[in-house]
Protein backbone atom coordinates (compact mmCIF):
# COMPACT_ATOMS: atom_id res chain seq x y z
CA UNK A 1 0.00 0.00 0.00
CA UNK A 2 1.34 3.44 -0.91
CA UNK A 3 1.90 5.96 1.91
CA UNK A 4 -0.81 8.25 0.44
CA UNK A 5 -3.25 5.36 0.47
CA UNK A 6 -2.40 4.57 4.07
CA UNK A 7 -3.12 8.11 5.27
CA UNK A 8 -6.28 8.33 3.20
CA UNK A 9 -7.57 5.12 4.79
CA UNK A 10 -6.51 6.12 8.29
CA UNK A 11 -8.04 9.62 8.09
CA UNK A 12 -11.21 8.21 6.58
CA UNK A 13 -11.52 5.96 9.59
CA UNK A 14 -10.88 8.81 12.02
CA UNK A 15 -13.31 11.36 10.55
CA UNK A 16 -16.16 9.03 9.65
CA UNK A 17 -19.53 9.82 11.11
CA UNK A 18 -19.56 6.43 12.78
CA UNK A 19 -16.28 7.06 14.56
CA UNK A 20 -17.49 10.44 15.81
CA UNK A 21 -20.73 8.97 17.08
CA UNK A 22 -19.03 6.14 18.91
CA UNK A 23 -16.19 8.36 20.13
CA UNK A 24 -13.52 6.56 22.04
CA UNK A 25 -15.27 3.19 21.70
CA UNK A 26 -14.26 3.13 18.03
CA UNK A 27 -10.63 3.89 18.84
CA UNK A 28 -9.62 0.24 19.18
CA UNK A 29 -11.09 -0.64 15.77
CA UNK A 30 -9.38 2.32 14.17
CA UNK A 31 -6.03 1.39 15.70
CA UNK A 32 -6.25 -2.19 14.37
CA UNK A 33 -6.88 -0.85 10.85
CA UNK A 34 -4.02 1.59 11.26
CA UNK A 35 -1.69 -1.14 12.55
CA UNK A 36 -2.25 -3.36 9.53
CA UNK A 37 -1.75 -0.45 7.12
CA UNK A 38 1.45 0.60 8.82
CA UNK A 39 2.85 -2.93 8.84
CA UNK A 40 2.22 -3.24 5.12
CA UNK A 41 3.91 0.07 4.40
CA UNK A 42 6.81 0.72 6.71
CA UNK A 43 6.96 -2.17 9.15
CA UNK A 44 6.90 -1.88 12.87
CA UNK A 45 9.60 0.75 13.56
CA UNK A 46 7.31 3.81 13.36
CA UNK A 47 4.21 2.15 14.74
CA UNK A 48 4.26 3.65 18.28
CA UNK A 49 4.77 7.19 16.94
CA UNK A 50 2.00 6.85 14.36
CA UNK A 51 -0.38 5.43 16.95
CA UNK A 52 0.22 8.37 19.31
CA UNK A 53 -0.38 10.90 16.51
CA UNK A 54 -3.57 9.20 15.44
CA UNK A 55 -4.85 9.04 19.02
CA UNK A 56 -4.40 12.81 19.34
CA UNK A 57 -6.09 13.48 16.01
CA UNK A 58 -9.00 11.22 16.95
CA UNK A 59 -9.50 13.00 20.27
CA UNK A 60 -9.52 16.36 18.48
CA UNK A 61 -12.08 15.13 15.94
CA UNK A 62 -14.38 13.99 18.75
CA UNK A 63 -13.99 16.86 21.18
CA UNK A 64 -13.66 19.82 18.81
CA UNK A 65 -16.66 20.45 16.52
CA UNK A 66 -16.34 21.70 12.96
CA UNK A 67 -16.00 25.44 12.39
CA UNK A 68 -19.62 25.70 11.25
CA UNK A 69 -20.74 23.84 14.36
CA UNK A 70 -18.62 26.12 16.52
CA UNK A 71 -20.11 29.19 14.88
CA UNK A 72 -23.58 27.90 15.63
CA UNK A 73 -22.71 27.41 19.31
CA UNK A 74 -21.08 30.81 19.86
CA UNK A 75 -22.90 33.13 22.26
CA UNK A 76 -23.14 35.96 19.78
CA UNK A 77 -25.47 38.08 21.93
CA UNK A 78 -22.44 40.01 23.12
CA UNK A 79 -21.56 40.85 19.53
CA UNK A 80 -24.82 42.54 18.64
CA UNK A 81 -25.39 46.26 19.05
CA UNK A 82 -26.97 47.45 22.27
CA UNK A 83 -29.52 49.74 20.64
CA UNK A 84 -32.12 49.34 17.93
CA UNK A 85 -29.66 49.94 15.09
CA UNK A 86 -27.18 47.59 13.41
CA UNK A 87 -23.72 48.25 11.96
CA UNK A 88 -23.80 46.19 8.74
CA UNK A 89 -20.23 46.72 7.49
CA UNK A 90 -18.80 43.52 8.88
CA UNK A 91 -15.23 44.71 9.45
CA UNK A 92 -16.27 47.74 11.53
CA UNK A 93 -15.96 47.71 15.32
CA UNK A 94 -19.29 46.76 16.89
CA UNK A 95 -20.67 45.29 13.67
CA UNK A 96 -23.52 42.81 13.75
CA UNK A 97 -22.18 39.24 13.38
CA UNK A 98 -21.25 37.96 9.93
CA UNK A 99 -22.78 34.49 9.78
CA UNK A 100 -21.83 31.32 7.92
CA UNK A 101 -24.00 29.66 5.27
CA UNK A 102 -24.88 26.93 7.78
CA UNK A 103 -26.09 29.54 10.27
CA UNK A 104 -27.99 31.46 7.61
CA UNK A 105 -29.75 28.36 6.28
CA UNK A 106 -30.66 27.29 9.81
CA UNK A 107 -32.16 30.72 10.51
CA UNK A 108 -34.05 30.80 7.20
CA UNK A 109 -35.71 27.45 7.88
CA UNK A 110 -36.95 28.65 11.28
CA UNK A 111 -37.70 32.28 10.38
CA UNK A 112 -39.63 31.46 7.21
CA UNK A 113 -41.13 28.15 8.33
CA UNK A 114 -44.65 29.31 7.47
CA UNK A 115 -43.71 31.00 4.18
CA UNK A 116 -42.71 28.29 1.72
CA UNK A 117 -42.15 30.62 -1.24
CA UNK A 118 -39.90 33.02 0.66
CA UNK A 119 -38.08 30.14 2.35
CA UNK A 120 -37.35 28.45 -0.99
CA UNK A 121 -36.06 31.67 -2.55
CA UNK A 122 -33.97 32.59 0.51
CA UNK A 123 -32.27 29.18 0.59
CA UNK A 124 -31.49 29.42 -3.13
CA UNK A 125 -29.73 32.74 -2.69
CA UNK A 126 -28.01 32.11 0.68
CA UNK A 127 -24.70 31.04 -0.90
CA UNK A 128 -24.56 34.24 -2.94
CA UNK A 129 -25.35 36.32 0.17
CA UNK A 130 -22.52 34.77 2.19
CA UNK A 131 -20.08 35.08 -0.75
CA UNK A 132 -20.98 38.76 -1.15
CA UNK A 133 -20.55 39.21 2.61
CA UNK A 134 -17.02 37.79 2.39
CA UNK A 135 -16.13 39.84 -0.69
CA UNK A 136 -17.77 43.20 0.05
CA UNK A 137 -18.19 43.14 3.89
CA UNK A 138 -21.95 43.71 3.55
CA UNK A 139 -23.81 41.74 6.23
CA UNK A 140 -25.74 38.81 4.71
CA UNK A 141 -28.56 39.05 7.29
CA UNK A 142 -28.99 42.72 6.38
CA UNK A 143 -29.18 41.88 2.67
CA UNK A 144 -31.83 39.23 3.21
CA UNK A 145 -33.86 41.58 5.40
CA UNK A 146 -33.83 44.16 2.59
CA UNK A 147 -35.10 41.56 0.12
CA UNK A 148 -38.01 40.71 2.41
CA UNK A 149 -38.94 44.37 2.85
CA UNK A 150 -38.67 45.17 -0.85
CA UNK A 151 -40.50 42.21 -2.39
CA UNK A 152 -41.07 39.37 0.05
CA UNK A 153 -37.77 37.78 -1.08
CA UNK A 154 -38.95 37.57 -4.68
CA UNK A 155 -42.51 36.40 -4.00
CA UNK A 156 -44.08 39.70 -5.06
CA UNK A 157 -41.30 41.25 -7.13
CA UNK A 158 -42.26 43.83 -9.74
CA UNK A 159 -38.72 43.96 -11.12
CA UNK A 160 -37.93 40.36 -12.04
CA UNK A 161 -34.84 39.09 -10.23
CA UNK A 162 -34.08 42.54 -8.84
CA UNK A 163 -35.27 41.53 -5.37
CA UNK A 164 -33.31 44.37 -3.78
CA UNK A 165 -34.87 47.15 -5.92
CA UNK A 166 -31.29 48.17 -6.64
CA UNK A 167 -30.86 50.76 -9.39
CA UNK A 168 -34.44 50.41 -10.57
CA UNK A 169 -34.50 54.08 -11.64
CA UNK A 170 -31.66 53.25 -13.99
CA UNK A 171 -33.50 50.22 -15.32
CA UNK A 172 -31.18 47.62 -13.78
CA UNK A 173 -32.25 44.09 -14.73
CA UNK A 174 -30.64 40.80 -13.77
CA UNK A 175 -30.75 37.27 -15.14
CA UNK A 176 -30.68 35.75 -11.65
CA UNK A 177 -31.10 36.80 -8.01
CA UNK A 178 -27.45 35.86 -7.42
CA UNK A 179 -26.39 38.47 -9.97
CA UNK A 180 -28.50 41.08 -8.19
CA UNK A 181 -26.96 40.14 -4.83
CA UNK A 182 -23.47 40.74 -6.18
CA UNK A 183 -24.43 44.03 -7.84
CA UNK A 184 -26.32 45.38 -4.82
CA UNK A 185 -23.61 44.42 -2.33
CA UNK A 186 -20.93 45.94 -4.56
CA UNK A 187 -22.99 49.12 -4.83
CA UNK A 188 -23.42 49.39 -1.07
CA UNK A 189 -19.72 48.76 -0.47
CA UNK A 190 -18.08 50.65 -3.32
CA UNK A 191 -20.74 52.98 -4.72
CA UNK A 192 -20.99 56.71 -4.02
CA UNK A 193 -23.70 56.70 -1.34
CA UNK A 194 -23.11 54.22 1.45
CA UNK A 195 -19.88 52.70 2.84
CA UNK A 196 -17.66 55.15 0.97
CA UNK A 197 -19.59 57.98 2.68
CA UNK A 198 -19.21 56.47 6.13
CA UNK A 199 -22.79 55.15 6.23
CA UNK A 200 -22.48 51.80 7.98
CA UNK A 201 -25.76 51.39 9.88
CA UNK A 202 -29.27 50.41 8.82
CA UNK A 203 -30.56 53.86 9.73
CA UNK A 204 -27.88 55.72 7.79
CA UNK A 205 -28.15 53.51 4.71
CA UNK A 206 -31.95 53.64 4.77
CA UNK A 207 -31.98 57.43 4.58
CA UNK A 208 -30.58 57.13 1.05
CA UNK A 209 -31.74 53.64 0.02
CA UNK A 210 -35.40 54.37 0.76
CA UNK A 211 -35.70 58.08 1.71
CA UNK A 212 -38.86 59.44 3.31
CA UNK A 213 -41.09 56.56 2.41
CA UNK A 214 -43.03 53.85 4.12
CA UNK A 215 -43.38 50.42 2.61
CA UNK A 216 -46.73 49.96 0.90
CA UNK A 217 -49.23 48.28 3.18
CA UNK A 218 -46.99 48.64 6.26
CA UNK A 219 -47.08 51.31 8.92
CA UNK A 220 -43.40 51.24 9.85
CA UNK A 221 -40.63 52.98 7.92
CA UNK A 222 -38.07 51.07 5.87
CA UNK A 223 -35.28 51.18 8.44
CA UNK A 224 -37.43 49.81 11.22
CA UNK A 225 -38.72 46.96 9.08
CA UNK A 226 -35.19 45.99 8.06
CA UNK A 227 -33.96 46.13 11.68
CA UNK A 228 -36.89 44.04 12.88
CA UNK A 229 -36.36 41.39 10.21
CA UNK A 230 -32.65 41.24 11.07
CA UNK A 231 -33.50 40.75 14.74
CA UNK A 232 -36.01 38.01 13.88
CA UNK A 233 -33.51 36.20 11.64
CA UNK A 234 -30.70 36.38 14.21
CA UNK A 235 -33.08 35.08 16.85
CA UNK A 236 -34.05 32.19 14.56
CA UNK A 237 -30.33 31.26 14.42
CA UNK A 238 -30.11 31.15 18.19
CA UNK A 239 -28.37 34.52 18.32
CA UNK A 240 -30.34 36.64 20.77
CA UNK A 241 -29.98 40.40 20.31
CA UNK A 242 -30.14 42.74 23.26
CA UNK A 243 -32.76 45.45 23.24
CA UNK A 244 -31.46 47.99 25.72
CA UNK A 245 -30.08 51.33 24.65
CA UNK A 246 -27.48 53.45 26.31
CA UNK A 247 -23.95 53.13 27.54
CA UNK A 248 -21.82 50.49 25.89
CA UNK A 249 -18.24 49.58 26.47
CA UNK A 250 -16.98 51.99 23.84
CA UNK A 251 -18.39 54.75 26.04
CA UNK A 252 -16.45 53.43 29.03
CA UNK A 253 -13.17 53.48 27.10
CA UNK A 254 -13.69 56.99 25.75
CA UNK A 255 -14.55 58.21 29.25
CA UNK A 256 -11.55 56.37 30.73
CA UNK A 257 -9.26 58.23 28.34
CA UNK A 258 -11.04 61.56 28.84
CA UNK A 259 -10.93 61.40 32.64
CA UNK A 260 -7.31 60.24 32.71
CA UNK A 261 -6.38 63.24 30.55
CA UNK A 262 -8.39 65.53 32.83
CA UNK A 263 -6.65 64.17 35.95
CA UNK A 264 -3.29 64.75 34.30
CA UNK A 265 -4.22 68.30 33.26
CA UNK A 266 -5.16 69.10 36.89
CA UNK A 267 -1.99 67.43 38.25
CA UNK A 268 -4.04 65.14 40.45
CA UNK A 269 -1.97 62.79 42.56
CA UNK A 270 -2.50 59.33 43.96
CA UNK A 271 -3.87 58.93 47.48
CA UNK A 272 -6.14 56.29 48.97
CA UNK A 273 -6.14 57.78 52.47
CA UNK A 274 -9.64 59.16 52.26
CA UNK A 275 -12.97 58.35 50.64
CA UNK A 276 -13.85 60.41 47.59
CA UNK A 277 -17.23 61.33 46.17
CA UNK A 278 -18.43 61.02 42.59
CA UNK A 279 -18.69 63.36 40.66
CA UNK A 280 -17.26 65.70 43.33
CA UNK A 281 -13.88 64.11 42.65
CA UNK A 282 -13.65 66.39 39.62
CA UNK A 283 -12.83 69.31 41.89
CA UNK A 284 -10.44 67.40 44.13
CA UNK A 285 -6.65 67.02 44.20
CA UNK A 286 -6.38 63.30 44.88
CA UNK A 287 -7.49 60.14 43.10
CA UNK A 288 -6.96 56.41 43.50
CA UNK A 289 -7.71 53.29 41.50
CA UNK A 290 -11.27 52.66 42.67
CA UNK A 291 -12.36 56.32 42.69
CA UNK A 292 -11.09 56.59 39.10
CA UNK A 293 -13.05 53.53 37.98
CA UNK A 294 -16.16 54.72 39.84
CA UNK A 295 -15.86 58.14 38.20
CA UNK A 296 -15.47 56.64 34.72
CA UNK A 297 -18.52 54.42 35.21
CA UNK A 298 -20.62 57.31 36.50
CA UNK A 299 -19.69 59.49 33.51
CA UNK A 300 -20.52 56.55 31.20
CA UNK A 301 -24.08 56.58 32.47
CA UNK A 302 -23.97 54.23 35.49
CA UNK A 303 -25.64 56.71 37.85
CA UNK A 304 -25.59 54.23 40.76
CA UNK A 305 -21.91 55.19 41.17
CA UNK A 306 -22.86 58.70 42.28
CA UNK A 307 -21.81 59.43 45.85
CA UNK A 308 -19.01 57.77 47.85
CA UNK A 309 -16.57 55.87 45.64
CA UNK A 310 -17.00 52.13 45.27
CA UNK A 311 -13.95 50.49 46.86
CA UNK A 312 -11.89 47.72 45.30
CA UNK A 313 -13.45 45.31 47.82
CA UNK A 314 -16.92 46.28 46.55
CA UNK A 315 -15.86 45.33 43.04
CA UNK A 316 -14.26 42.13 44.35
CA UNK A 317 -17.44 41.05 46.10
CA UNK A 318 -19.39 42.08 42.97
CA UNK A 319 -22.38 43.48 44.83
CA UNK A 320 -23.55 44.83 41.46
CA UNK A 321 -23.99 41.21 40.25
CA UNK A 322 -22.23 41.95 36.95
CA UNK A 323 -21.26 39.17 34.56
CA UNK A 324 -17.89 37.58 35.30
CA UNK A 325 -15.76 36.90 32.19
CA UNK A 326 -12.72 34.75 31.51
CA UNK A 327 -9.29 35.79 30.24
CA UNK A 328 -10.14 34.56 26.75
CA UNK A 329 -13.38 36.61 26.75
CA UNK A 330 -11.89 39.97 27.70
CA UNK A 331 -12.83 43.02 25.71
CA UNK A 332 -12.22 46.73 26.12
CA UNK A 333 -14.39 48.22 28.86
CA UNK A 334 -14.26 45.22 31.21
CA UNK A 335 -13.35 45.94 34.83
CA UNK A 336 -10.32 44.01 36.15
CA UNK A 337 -10.30 43.31 39.88
CA UNK A 338 -7.37 42.33 42.11
CA UNK A 339 -6.85 42.16 45.86
CA UNK A 340 -6.82 45.83 46.85
CA UNK A 341 -6.88 47.14 43.27
CA UNK A 342 -9.20 47.73 40.32
CA UNK A 343 -8.59 48.98 36.75
CA UNK A 344 -10.19 49.20 33.29
CA UNK A 345 -9.20 46.89 30.45
CA UNK A 346 -8.40 48.96 27.33
CA UNK A 347 -7.94 46.08 24.85
CA UNK A 348 -4.71 44.74 23.32
CA UNK A 349 -3.53 43.67 26.80
CA UNK A 350 -3.51 47.31 27.98
CA UNK A 351 -5.23 48.97 30.94
CA UNK A 352 -6.27 52.36 32.29
CA UNK A 353 -4.99 52.53 35.84
CA UNK A 354 -4.94 55.26 38.49
CA UNK A 355 -3.23 53.14 41.12
CA UNK A 356 0.00 55.16 41.39
CA UNK A 357 1.52 58.51 40.50
CA UNK A 358 3.54 56.74 37.81
CA UNK A 359 0.36 55.46 36.17
CA UNK A 360 -1.22 58.92 36.39
CA UNK A 361 1.61 60.49 34.41
CA UNK A 362 1.41 58.09 31.45
CA UNK A 363 -0.04 59.55 28.24
CA UNK A 364 -1.03 56.13 26.89
CA UNK A 365 -2.69 53.09 28.48
CA UNK A 366 -0.33 50.87 30.45
CA UNK A 367 0.61 47.31 29.56
CA UNK A 368 -1.15 44.74 31.74
CA UNK A 369 1.48 42.75 33.62
CA UNK A 370 -0.36 40.55 36.11
CA UNK A 371 -3.25 38.14 36.26
CA UNK A 372 -6.53 39.49 37.60
CA UNK A 373 -8.59 37.76 40.25
CA UNK A 374 -11.88 38.69 38.62
CA UNK A 375 -13.04 40.41 35.42
CA UNK A 376 -16.49 42.03 35.40
CA UNK A 377 -18.51 43.23 32.42
CA UNK A 378 -20.80 46.21 33.09
CA UNK A 379 -24.24 45.60 31.60
CA UNK A 380 -25.76 47.76 28.91
CA UNK A 381 -27.99 50.36 30.51
CA UNK A 382 -30.88 52.63 29.83
CA UNK A 383 -30.37 56.11 31.21
CA UNK A 384 -32.02 59.38 30.33
CA UNK A 385 -28.74 61.22 30.49
CA UNK A 386 -27.02 58.82 28.12
CA UNK A 387 -26.67 59.94 24.53
CA UNK A 388 -28.45 58.22 21.73
CA UNK A 389 -30.44 58.54 18.55
CA UNK A 390 -34.14 57.65 18.63
CA UNK A 391 -36.72 57.28 15.88
CA UNK A 392 -39.34 59.99 16.42
CA UNK A 393 -41.32 61.72 13.68
CA UNK A 394 -42.27 65.37 13.46
CA UNK A 395 -42.49 68.19 10.95
CA UNK A 396 -39.25 67.83 8.98
CA UNK A 397 -37.54 65.19 11.12
CA UNK A 398 -37.73 61.42 11.66
CA UNK A 399 -35.41 61.05 14.64
CA UNK A 400 -34.08 62.90 17.67
CA UNK A 401 -30.75 62.84 19.49
CA UNK A 402 -30.55 63.05 23.30
CA UNK A 403 -27.57 64.17 25.34
CA UNK A 404 -27.24 65.51 28.90
CA UNK A 405 -30.93 66.16 29.30
CA UNK A 406 -31.27 67.87 25.90
CA UNK A 407 -33.20 66.34 23.00
CA UNK A 408 -32.39 67.67 19.54
CA UNK A 409 -34.80 67.36 16.62
CA UNK A 410 -32.75 66.35 13.59
CA UNK A 411 -34.42 68.55 10.97
CA UNK A 412 -33.66 67.99 7.28
CA UNK A 413 -33.80 71.06 5.04
CA UNK A 414 -35.68 69.30 2.22
CA UNK A 415 -38.35 67.82 4.49
CA UNK A 416 -41.32 69.32 6.25
CA UNK A 417 -43.73 72.09 5.50
CA UNK A 418 -40.93 74.66 5.54
CA UNK A 419 -38.85 73.22 2.68
CA UNK A 420 -40.29 75.66 0.12
CA UNK A 421 -39.79 78.79 2.25
CA UNK A 422 -37.69 81.40 0.42
CA UNK A 423 -34.13 81.71 1.68
CA UNK A 424 -31.07 83.27 0.07
CA UNK A 425 -31.14 82.69 -3.70
CA UNK A 426 -33.50 79.74 -3.44
CA UNK A 427 -35.46 77.93 -0.72
CA UNK A 428 -34.67 76.27 2.56
CA UNK A 429 -34.65 72.94 0.68
CA UNK A 430 -31.64 73.93 -1.44
CA UNK A 431 -30.07 76.85 0.44
CA UNK A 432 -31.23 76.72 4.04
CA UNK A 433 -28.60 74.57 5.74
CA UNK A 434 -27.77 77.48 8.07
CA UNK A 435 -31.23 77.99 9.61
CA UNK A 436 -31.79 74.21 9.61
CA UNK A 437 -28.57 73.60 11.60
CA UNK A 438 -29.50 76.39 14.01
CA UNK A 439 -33.00 74.94 14.42
CA UNK A 440 -31.51 71.52 15.26
CA UNK A 441 -29.33 73.01 18.00
CA UNK A 442 -32.04 75.37 19.28
CA UNK A 443 -34.53 72.51 19.67
CA UNK A 444 -32.28 71.04 22.36
CA UNK A 445 -32.78 74.22 24.38
CA UNK A 446 -36.56 74.08 24.17
CA UNK A 447 -37.01 76.20 21.04
CA UNK A 448 -40.27 75.71 19.13
CA UNK A 449 -38.77 77.06 15.89
CA UNK A 450 -38.47 74.93 12.80
CA UNK A 451 -36.25 76.21 9.95
CA UNK A 452 -39.16 78.00 8.30
CA UNK A 453 -40.51 79.78 11.37
CA UNK A 454 -36.96 80.65 12.42
CA UNK A 455 -36.31 82.39 9.10
CA UNK A 456 -39.62 84.26 9.39
CA UNK A 457 -38.83 85.41 12.94
CA UNK A 458 -35.32 86.51 11.94
CA UNK A 459 -36.68 88.51 8.99
CA UNK A 460 -39.08 90.30 11.34
CA UNK A 461 -36.42 90.89 14.01
CA UNK A 462 -33.85 92.33 11.62
CA UNK A 463 -36.23 93.98 9.17
CA UNK A 464 -34.90 92.26 6.03
CA UNK A 465 -36.80 90.65 3.16
CA UNK A 466 -34.32 87.85 2.75
CA UNK A 467 -30.96 86.55 3.95
CA UNK A 468 -27.83 85.57 2.10
CA UNK A 469 -26.37 82.13 2.90
CA UNK A 470 -23.51 83.61 4.94
CA UNK A 471 -21.95 83.46 8.43
CA UNK A 472 -23.58 86.79 9.23
CA UNK A 473 -27.02 85.37 8.43
CA UNK A 474 -26.31 82.27 10.53
CA UNK A 475 -25.26 84.52 13.43
CA UNK A 476 -28.60 86.37 13.16
CA UNK A 477 -30.45 83.05 13.21
CA UNK A 478 -28.59 82.08 16.41
CA UNK A 479 -29.50 85.39 18.05
CA UNK A 480 -33.13 85.00 17.02
CA UNK A 481 -33.18 81.56 18.65
CA UNK A 482 -31.61 83.15 21.78
CA UNK A 483 -28.43 81.09 21.49
CA UNK A 484 -25.17 82.63 22.72
CA UNK A 485 -21.99 81.67 20.91
CA UNK A 486 -18.29 82.09 20.30
CA UNK A 487 -17.50 82.58 16.64
CA UNK A 488 -14.30 81.29 15.00
CA UNK A 489 -12.90 81.63 11.50
CA UNK A 490 -11.37 78.22 11.24
CA UNK A 491 -11.43 75.99 14.29
CA UNK A 492 -8.84 73.58 15.67
CA UNK A 493 -9.39 70.03 16.80
CA UNK A 494 -8.47 71.03 20.33
CA UNK A 495 -10.95 73.93 20.40
CA UNK A 496 -13.86 71.89 19.05
CA UNK A 497 -13.09 68.84 21.18
CA UNK A 498 -12.75 70.86 24.38
CA UNK A 499 -16.05 72.62 23.71
CA UNK A 500 -18.04 69.47 22.93
CA UNK A 501 -16.72 67.72 26.05
CA UNK A 502 -18.56 70.38 28.06
CA UNK A 503 -21.80 68.91 26.70
CA UNK A 504 -22.51 71.88 24.44
CA UNK A 505 -23.21 71.77 20.68
CA UNK A 506 -21.77 73.65 17.71
CA UNK A 507 -22.78 74.86 14.25
CA UNK A 508 -19.89 74.49 11.79
CA UNK A 509 -19.45 75.48 8.15
CA UNK A 510 -17.84 72.80 5.94
CA UNK A 511 -16.90 72.31 2.29
CA UNK A 512 -16.71 69.35 -0.08
CA UNK A 513 -13.39 68.01 1.25
CA UNK A 514 -13.26 64.47 2.72
CA UNK A 515 -14.76 62.96 -0.45
CA UNK A 516 -17.85 65.17 -0.13
CA UNK A 517 -18.80 63.40 3.11
CA UNK A 518 -21.07 66.25 4.28
CA UNK A 519 -21.78 68.20 1.11
CA UNK A 520 -20.86 68.65 -2.53
CA UNK A 521 -20.41 72.42 -2.12
CA UNK A 522 -20.41 74.57 1.05
CA UNK A 523 -22.67 73.74 3.92
CA UNK A 524 -23.57 74.09 7.62
CA UNK A 525 -23.84 71.12 9.97
CA UNK A 526 -24.79 70.75 13.63
CA UNK A 527 -22.42 68.84 15.93
CA UNK A 528 -24.12 67.49 19.05
CA UNK A 529 -21.80 65.09 20.90
CA UNK A 530 -18.30 63.64 21.23
CA UNK A 531 -16.86 60.24 22.24
CA UNK A 532 -13.09 60.04 22.07
CA UNK A 533 -12.14 61.20 18.57
CA UNK A 534 -15.66 60.61 17.21
CA UNK A 535 -18.25 63.41 16.99
CA UNK A 536 -21.95 63.11 16.26
CA UNK A 537 -22.95 65.18 13.20
CA UNK A 538 -26.58 66.06 12.50
CA UNK A 539 -26.53 66.98 8.82
CA UNK A 540 -29.40 69.04 7.33
CA UNK A 541 -28.74 67.30 3.99
CA UNK A 542 -30.57 63.93 4.15
CA UNK A 543 -28.44 62.45 1.36
CA UNK A 544 -25.10 63.04 3.09
CA UNK A 545 -23.43 61.82 6.25
CA UNK A 546 -25.31 62.01 9.54
CA UNK A 547 -23.96 60.16 12.56
CA UNK A 548 -20.59 59.44 14.12
CA UNK A 549 -17.48 60.59 12.25
CA UNK A 550 -13.86 61.24 13.17
CA UNK A 551 -13.41 64.81 14.39
CA UNK A 552 -10.49 65.21 11.96
CA UNK A 553 -12.95 65.01 9.04
CA UNK A 554 -14.85 68.00 10.42
CA UNK A 555 -11.64 70.00 10.93
CA UNK A 556 -10.43 69.21 7.40
CA UNK A 557 -13.77 70.16 5.87
CA UNK A 558 -13.99 73.35 7.95
CA UNK A 559 -10.70 74.61 6.52
CA UNK A 560 -10.84 78.23 7.73
CA UNK A 561 -14.61 78.58 7.50
CA UNK A 562 -17.00 79.84 10.20
CA UNK A 563 -17.69 77.86 13.36
CA UNK A 564 -20.15 78.82 16.12
CA UNK A 565 -19.68 77.21 19.56
CA UNK A 566 -22.88 77.49 21.61
CA UNK A 567 -22.25 78.76 25.15
CA UNK A 568 -25.78 78.70 26.72
Instruction: Please tell me the total number of domains.
Output: 4
CATH classification class of the largest domain: Alpha Beta
Count of individual beta strands? 21
Structural class: alpha+beta
CATH architecture type of the largest domain:
Alpha-Beta Complex
Major pleated sheet: 6 strands, antiparallel
Mean pLDDT: 80
Instruction: Spell out the CATH superfamily of the largest domain.
Output: Cysteine proteinases
Strand content: 5-15%
pLDDT < 50 runs, ≥5 residues: 1-25, 59-84, 214-219, 242-248, 381-386
Helix content: 40-55%
Strand order of the largest sheet: 5-10-6-7-8-9
Our measurement of the CA-to-CA distance between the termini, rounded to an integer number of angstroms, reads 87 Å
Named CATH topology of the largest domain: Cathepsin B, Chain A
- By DSSP (H or I, 4+ residues per run), the number of helices equals 22
Shape: flat
How would you characterize the overall build of this protein?
- With 568 residues, this protein is of the alpha+beta class.
- It has four domains: 3-60, no CATH class; 73-236, Lysozyme; 249-377, endopeptidase fold (from Nostoc punctiforme) (Alpha-Beta Complex), CATH 3.90.1720; 388-566, Cysteine proteinases (Cathepsin B, Chain A, Alpha-Beta Complex).
- The protein is 41% helix and 15% strand.
- The chain contains 22 helices and 21 strands.
- The strands form six sheets. Strands 5-10-6-7-8-9 form a six-stranded antiparallel β-sheet. Strands 16-21-17-18-19-20 form a six-stranded antiparallel β-sheet, with helices on both faces. Strands 11-12-13 form a three-stranded antiparallel β-sheet.
- A hairpin with a 2-residue loop joins strand 14 and strand 15 (426-427).
- The longest helix is centred in the first third of the chain and has 21 residues, at 116-136.
- The termini are far apart.
- The model is unreliable at 1-25, 59-84, 214-219, 242-248 and 381-386 (pLDDT under 50).
